[in-house]
Amino acid sequence: MMTTLTKNPPAAAHKAPQRSNRGRGMAKLGDLRIALLFILPAMIGFVAFFLVPTIRGIYLSFTEYSVLGEPEWIGLKNYTSIFADELFWNAMAVTVQYVAINIGLQTVIALGLALLMHRVAKSTFVRGALLLPFLVANVIVALLWFWMLDYQLGIVNEIINWMGLPRIAFFGSEQWAIPTIAFVNVWRHMGYTALLIFAGLQSIPNHVYEVASLDGASPTRTFWSITMPLLRPVLALVLVVTVIGSFQVFDTVAVTTGGGPVNASRVIQMYIYQKAFGESDFGYASALSVILFVILALVAFIQMKFLKGNESDLD
Amino acid sequence: MKKSLGAVAAAAAIALSLSACGGASSTPSAEAKGEINYWLWDANQLPAYQQCAADFTKANPDIKVKITQRGWDDYWTTLTNGFVAGTAPDVFTDHLSKFPEYASKKQLLALDDAVQKDGVKLDVYNKGLADLWVGQDGKRYGLPKDWDTVAMFYNKKLVKDAGYTEEQLKNLDWNPQNGGSYEKAIAHLTVDKSGKRGDEAGFDKSKVAVYGLGLENSGSGQGQTQWSFLSATTGWTHTDKNPWGTKFNYDDPKLQETIKWWAGLADKGYMPKLETTVGASVSDAFGAGKAAINTNGSWMIGQYTSYKGVETGIAPTPKGPEGKRASMFNGLADSVWAGTKNPAASVKWVEYLASSACQDVVASKAVVFPAIKSSSEKAAAAFKAKGIDVTAFTTHVTDGTTFLFPIADKAAKVDGIMKPAMDAVVSGKKDASSLTDANGQVNSLFK
After folding, report:
1. Rounded CA separation B141/B137 (Å)
2. How many beta carbons lie within 10 A of that of residue B186, not counting itself?
3. For residue B30, what pLDDT is reported?
4. What end-to-end distance do the CA atoms of chain A give, in Å?
5. Does the distance separating the beta carbons of B285 and A169 come in below 8 Å?
6. pLDDT at A25
7. Nearest alpha carbon to residue B93 among B362, B409, B406
8. A151·B101 Cβ contact <8 A
9. How far is A150 from chain B, CA to nearest CA, in Å?
10. Average of per-residue pLDDT across A267-287
């Protein structure tokens, strides 16, 4: 009975309307002009704040540059030093650990919240409340948790202590620092991520679920055989966006641990910041940034490829 | 058509005249007038300097000083960005760990000519302070504003409860082998939750209620308020020479023994573990009665004496193996940015800040010790009038037991290596001998 669901594409696929070609060829030039006009502001922003800095950053990565003074061309020296730099490899390891905990936890929780919003919590107030942590600035959220999780004076440790358990150095111990920072950011971003997934859930046509329930599919079965496959494009997009964002974690680290203890939370962006603004080594920091850029491009490419994020099972 | 052309011409003329005005004010003027920007990081000192600025403008009605206070954490990056963007302040409070790089990158205005022309006397300052601000090129980049030393702040009640007299606390001795009477006091001042003291049988170091000694952080490569007042009594110095050392001595057994002893206090339960110090400040923990002794700098006097319900005393740091105390002697200065559009007024303001007129005002507020000898005496008197005995800090200056803050190039890079290295030792993750490896990395920066 259920095999029909899993083997064949959903019924809706065949009913999808043909894309209309009306209007094509008419006043093409006029459209183009207007289109360009609308694109222009974004284009200016893109060129001024992304393209030019990126190209300059790539150039600076081949130089020794302290901001005060002129960049001096040193070829690949920054890159060869980076590959021999223990702190770089440590930063990569720490960042990957952070991304794994952050994305793993966040995606599961956000998916759960999205399903609850879709099925149970239909009130706009509850849906809105879920988004609240995201509306608070990153640094404020980080400081708030930094206080609450403080070893000596924080409310969380007071409660732990009151329960007779040993206090936990959330930001101070090497084992806890990264999981704690990851948790803080999960708390802030889960509502927003849930909202994105929720939007994806709403785009799944109701009749697919109706057919499933007519076939007597259990909720679990419906989830794995309908919701997840049809949600794939949205999930892929969400994952690409959140993974890229996660790799760039910085503010939470900067205002809490500052990269410590020892090097336990010195994530790659923190290391770039330290090299550039702390040690005035902008050439080296640019090279680190270029490496991060390449890694992120690869991650995004692989995710889109494997999750087939640009095609939907609904078509 | 004609009309609109005329309008355009008029607009152009206005624009031209406007830019002409702008041009005139943007060229460095030899005349000392206009508005200058001044930055400092310590909010506690802001009122004193606002008073100085008001007095200064009264004496020089053509010059206005706009003061901006920025917290230490943002101060230096904002300043560096300002150098690049051309928006840095004309005059700013400068630190010994930062000025070498700024000077070598030509961001600071040399003050030698002005000092000579205006006859600024450099011998009015406490000994050594004026020399700190001469760069490797032999030029002067700052005029001294204040100085600081290190002492022990203690909780009077906790000390009394432990049966110690304040006199005893002021005469402690220390050695890197067994910690001397300094460690004995720290151990005895430590109390666990069942009331057992650190030196009593049955003391539970996992359930400490009050630590004998508070811990701020590992002190990175300088240990200004954490361990340098101990290591210096063994004859150890940070660098081969000061200022402008190019070889660091973190591989010296004398330092490594000191650090080993100090980090060992956390192991014995007499001092909090490093991991617990991320977050609440060491002084706030002291204010909450969680530590009996804190070692800290004289700029913290106001903070330590302001906690409600805690009576704070100040004792000098312990005497070392050779019977002498030691304290790092750090001094701040005001520097002029090389890119200032108003060098004449800026220099005038710096000279005023470095004069007894302003430093006496700072002294009267009892927040820090001004650089001028007579003004520091006034500051000590002002502290005394507030009921605070600061001789623990001044004794280092009168007895000549200070050593200068280690001035070296590449301070930020040295810190980038030494902070994690020192953290690893103090947290007990690595042995003090691992500092030898870090020292190699530091010294390779200067090759």
Report:
1. 10
2. 23
3. 61
4. 23
5. no
6. 54
7. B362
8. no
9. 6
10. 91
- Looking at residue B238, its amino acid is H
Give the residue numbers in A contacting B (CB under 8 Å), as ranges.
66-69, 146-147, 149-154, 166-167, 169, 171-174, 256-257, 260-263, 266, 274, 277-281
> Do residues A313 and A229 make contact, with C-beta atoms less than 8 angstroms apart?
yes
Q: Do B275 and A277 touch (CB under 8 A)?
A: no
CA distance A193 to B398: 64
A262·B290 Cβ contact <8 A = no
Which pLDDT tens digit goes with each residue over A93-126? Answer: 999 999 999 999 999 999 999 998 888 877 888 8
Strands A63-64 and B34-40, sheet pairing: unpaired
Write down the pTM of the prediction.
0.81
How far is Cα A182 from Cα A179, in angstroms, rounded to an integer?
A: 5
Omega before B243 within 30 of 0, i.e. cis: yes
* CB environment A28-61: b (16+ within 10 A), e (fewer): eeeeeeeeeeeeeeeeeeeeeeeeeeeeebeebb
Is pLDDT at B28 greater than 70 in this prediction? Answer: no
**In B27-71, which residue ranges form alpha helices assigned H by DSSP?**
46-59
For the record, the structure tokens of A147 come out as: 């206080």
Going by C-alpha positions, the residue among B273, B306, B284, B350 that lies closest to residue B32 is B350
Looking from the CA of B206 toward its CB, the CA atoms found within 13 Å total: 5
| CB-CB under 8 Å, A68 with B105 | yes
Angle at B324 between CA B320 and CA B328, to 5 degrees: 85
Which residues does chain A have within 8 Å of residue B108's beta carbon, measured at their own beta carbons? none
Residue A285, both tokens: 């920091």
> Does the distance separating the beta carbons of A171 and B278 come in below 8 Å?
yes
Helix (H) or strand (E) holding B147: strand B143-148
> Which residues contact residue A22 at a Cβ distance below 8 angstroms, ignoring those fewer than 6 apart?
none
> For the ranges A6-10, B79-83, B115-119, B264-268, which has the lowest average pLDDT?
A6-10
Q: Locate tokens 């101070």: which residue?
A: A172
Q: Which of A76, A237, A256 is nearest to A180 (CA)?
A: A256
State the SS3 of chain A: CCHHHHHCCCCHHHHCCCCCCCCCCCCHHHHHHHHHHHHHHHHHHHHHHHHHHHHHHHHHCCEECCCCCCCEECCCHHHHHHHCCHHHHHHHHHHHHHHHHHHHHHHHHHHHHHHHHHHCCCCHHHHHHHHHHHHCCHHHHHHHHHHHCCCCCCHHHHHHHHCCCCCCCCCCCCCCHHHHHHHHHHHHHHHHHHHHHHHHHHCCCHHHHHHHHHCCCCHHHHHHHHHHHHHHHHHHHHHHHHHHHHHCCCHHHHHCCCCCCCCCCCCHHHHHHHHHHHCCCHHHHHHHHHHHHHHHHHHHHHHHHHHCCCCCCCC
Nearest chain B residue to A167 by CA: give it: B276
Q: Which two tokens stand for residue B390?
A: 């600061």
Token pair 């704690």 is at which residue? A180
Helical packing angle, A86-119 and A228-247, nearest 10°: 140
Interior angle at CA B370, CA B214 and CA B44, nearest 5: 55
Q: How many CB atoms lie within 10 A of CB B376?
A: 24
Is the reported ipTM for this assembly greater than 0.85?
no
Q: Nearest Cβ partner of A152 from B83, B290, B419? A: B290
Q: pLDDT band for position A286 (50/70/90)?
A: very high
What's residue B7's pLDDT? 44
d(CA B300, CA B150): 10
Q: How far is A49 from chain B (nearest CA, A)?
A: 17
Out of A134-138, B11-15, B201-205, B434-438, pick the least confident.
Answer: B11-15
Q: What are phi and psi of B314, to 5 degrees?
A: -125, 125
| Separation in Å, CA of B277 to nearest CA in chain A | 7
User: What is the overall mean pLDDT for chain B?
Assistant: 89
